[in-house]
Amino acid sequence: MSGRTLRLAIWGLVAVNVVALAWVMVISPRMTANAAGKIGHGEYTLAATDGTAFTETSLSQAPSLVFFGFTHCPDVCPTTLGDILTWQEALPEARDMNIYFVTVDPTRDTGDILKDYVGWVDGVRGVTGSEEETQKALEAFGVYAARVDLGDGDYTMDHSASVFLFDKDGNYSDRIRYQEDFDTAVGQLKALLGT
Amino acid sequence: MNVFSLFAVATALIVGASFASAGDVQHGNKHDAHDETAMDHVQHGDLVLTGAYVRATLPNQPVAGAFLTIENTGTEDEMLVGVSADFAGRGEVHEMKMVDDTMQMRKLDAGLVIPAGETVTLEPGGYHLMFMKLDQAMVEGETVNATLEFENTGPVTTSFNVEGKVAKRGEHDHGS
Ligand SMILES: [Cu+2]
C-alpha cells in the first residue's frame, strides 16, 4: 500500500468515526427525544381481543400499559405478563388500567390464539391485525421488532421488551424496563396513577 | 494532534459511548426463585447437572425455555451441542440478550462451552434450552425428560421439573 493510499484510508476511517460519533452523541438521542412526546400516537387500527379497535384513542380512555411480544416467546413475554400480575396484586388500583399486549408477530398470533394467551392475567387484552397496521403501530410507539429466521420455516422475533406507561389523556409518561426491580416498577405505576 | 491519535480518540469515544448505552440495560434481579425446588443431581462423566427445570407454558404458547446448571469437574472443556425431547419437535441451545431494550434470541450454532473446572448456569434472560413445536403444554408440577448432547461425554437424559409461569417470584401462580 502506498503512503498516499494509506493516508486516504486513515482519513476515511476518521470520517467514519466522526459520523458514528455524531450519531451516537447527537443525532440518535435527539431522535429519541423528538419521539418521546408523541409515543403511541399515529394512524394505526388494530383489533383487541375484547372486540374493540386498538387505535391511538384507546390510550386516552384510562391510564394504560402497552407492551409488545409474541406467543412463540420463551421467556420475556411470559415474564412480563407474570410481572403485571404481581404488580396488580401489590397495587389494586392497577386493575383499573387498560393493559394491551400488542403482538409483533401478527401472522402467527391471531385473535383467537392471543385471547387465551393473555387471558391468563385478568384485564390484559391482546392486540393483533394486519402486518401493515402492526408496522404502523410499531412505528408510532418507536418499537423495534425484527424477524430472525431459525431455519426450516421457524423464526423468532427480536423485540423491545419495555412496558410503556400512558396517563389517562394518552400521553406517554414512562416505561418499565424488562426485569425492573419490583419496588421500582410499583413506584412507577403509583406515580402514573397518582396514588 | 496527528491522524493516528485523532483516530484513536474517536474510536475510544465511540466504544465508550456504545458501552455506556449497553451497560444500563444489564440490571435487574435475575434469579430470585429457582434455587429451592429442583434438586435433581445428575452425574454424567465429569459433568454435574443440577436444578433442571422447564418453564410452564401459557395457553397457546408453543415454545418453552428450560434451564439448568452444568458444572465441569474435569480437565477438558466440554461443549453442549444439542438438546432433544419427545414432547418437542425441535430443541436447541439458545442465548438471549438484551441489547438497548431489545430482546434478542439466537441459536448457539457451535454449542455452549462448559470450560474445564467451571460452572455454567442457563437461566432466564441468558443461555437456555429452547423447545419448539411443543406437542403438549408444560404444566406446573409435572416432570418432563429431555436429552442433552455433549460433544465429548455424549448424550444424557435428565428430568426437568415444570415450574411456575411467574418465574421471578415463585408462588404467585394464578391457576388457569
Ligand atoms: Cu430461545
- Spatial gap, N to C terminus of chain A: 68 Å
Number of domains as seen in the coordinates of chain A? 2
The CATH architecture designation of the largest domain in chain A is 3-Layer(aba) Sandwich
Residues in helices of chain A, as a percent range: 40-55%
| CATH topology tier name of the largest domain in chain A | Glutaredoxin
Give the count of helical stretches of chain A.
Answer: 5
Rounded mean pLDDT score of chain A: 88
Question: Pair with the most extensive interface?
Answer: A-B, 49 and 52 residues
Order of helices and strands of chain B: HEEEEEEEEEEE
Total separate domains of chain B:
2
Order of helices and strands of chain A: HEEEHEHEHEEEEH
The mean pLDDT of chain B is: 80
Low-confidence stretches of chain B: 13-38, 168-176
| Widest sheet, order of strands of chain A | 2-1-5-4-3-8-9
Question: Globular, elongated, flat, extended or rod-shaped: what is the shape of chain A?
Answer: globular
By secondary-structure content and strand pairing, the structural class of chain B works out as: mainly beta
User: What share of the residues of chain A does DSSP label as strand, in percent?
Assistant: 15-25%
Largest sheet of chain A: 7 strands, mixed
Could you tell me the radius of gyration of chain A in angstroms? 20 Å
CATH architecture of the largest domain in chain B: Sandwich
The CATH superfamily of the largest domain in chain A appears as Glutaredoxin
